[in-house]
Amino acid sequence: MTKQAPIPSGFGPATTAQQVLEGVDLTGKVAIVTGGYSGIGLATTRALSEAGATVIVPARTPDKAHKALGTIPRVEQTTLDLLDPASIDAFADEFLRSGRPLHILINNAAIMANPLTRDARGNESQLSTNHLGHFQLTMRLWPALSNADGARVIALSSRGHQRAGVDFDDPNFNHRPYDRYVAYGQAKTATSLFAVALDRRGAASGIRAFAVHPGPVVTGLIRTMTEDELKHYSLSRNDSHGSAPAGQSIAEGGEFKTLEQGAATSVWCATSPQLTGMGGVYCQDADIAPILYSEVESPVGVRPYAIDPQAAERLWTLSEELTGARIESLVS
């Protein structure tokens, strides 16, 4: 595992995806970006395409995706519902049949703080969408990642991981009261731990994994927030997605990023030569983040429990049990 400390990279909160890709040629590379047709995912798709990559964007709502992606070159659109195990398998089978290597997998799609709902297996939907669905997808795509001669998997985490670790006794809120933000925190801690365990398994095959906090960006995820919650963050239901509220952008000394700034860390982790030979770390602001030891919530840093190797292994075992998925190359 790479040391969890800034390199430093020379980039920062205001860095855009286009800036981290300066001088990077992705011609011939194949990427998959879940949720790559809206918000940060769309900015990620556009940046990778501009650098020459072929980008596959699986979408739960194909019509919406087609409208958003229509003018971006080298984009292939298909169908995927992360809450549906059969849909995940069908998408993976279709890609594997193409025989192409997979150089970049960005597990970007997410939901946040929604009321208690469950997937077909009975798993809580935030854990299922943000982590378990991506876990199954990554396991199924393992042969293509192995064939890339150097692949990177990016797991989208969040500052929200500071709200909660993984409750291994009751991850699906079958017994404890449901709290939508605790559930979100658990899911985002799970995505960070996933990168730790995945990198340990993949490094020998050239598959490196990174957890990413994109930073504060106004996206469609605010639709689940109450009026009081929006007011707390000085947001409005009418705020334009991808644009910081007036006076609150990073460039103006505020805390909110544009979509292009939000996509920067995903793209940096997926492509930067600065990370050659590294992996298994939590990143933000286009750099490796420091460890946050203080109990006080902070916009910068990762909690020790979200990068703990033992917890990562425990989560891996739990994820296999809840999904039935294993690394494809190891399944007889």
Task: Give me some keywords for this one.
Rossmann fold, eight-stranded mixed beta sheet, 8 strands, single chain, 10 helices, 2 domains, 332 residues, 35% helix, alpha/beta
Short summary of the structure?
The chain is built from 10 helices and 8 strands. The protein is α/β, with parallel strands linked by helices and 332 residues long.
Please outline the helices and strands.
Elements: H1 17-20, E1 30-33, H2 39-50, E2 54-59, H3 62-69, E3 75-79, H4 85-97, E4 104-107, H5 125-140, H6 142-146, E5 151-156, H7 180-202, E6 207-213, H8 227-232, H9 259-271, E7 281-284, E8 287-288, H10 309-323
Parallel strand pairs: 1-2, 1-4, 2-3, 4-5, 5-6, 6-7
Antiparallel strand pairs: 7-8
Largest β sheet strand count, sense and barrel closure: 8 strands, mixed
* Number of separate domains: 2
Helix content: 25-40%
Query: What is the distance, rounded to the nearest whole angstrom, between the alpha carbons of the first and last residues?
Result: 28 Å
The pLDDT mean sits at 91
Count of distinct strands: 8
How much beta, percentage-wise? 5-15%
Quickly give the CATH architecture of the largest domain. 3-Layer(aba) Sandwich
Assigned CATH class of the largest domain: Alpha Beta
CATH topology of the largest domain: Rossmann fold
Major sheet strand order? 3-2-1-4-5-6-7-8
Task: Supply the helix-strand structural class.
Answer: alpha/beta
Total helices: the number is 10
Low-confidence sequence ranges: none
Work out the radius of gyration.
Answer: 18 Å
SSE pattern: HEHEHEHEHHEHEHHEEH
Q: CATH superfamily of the largest domain, please?
A: NAD(P)-binding Rossmann-like Domain
Oligomer: single chain
Shape: globular
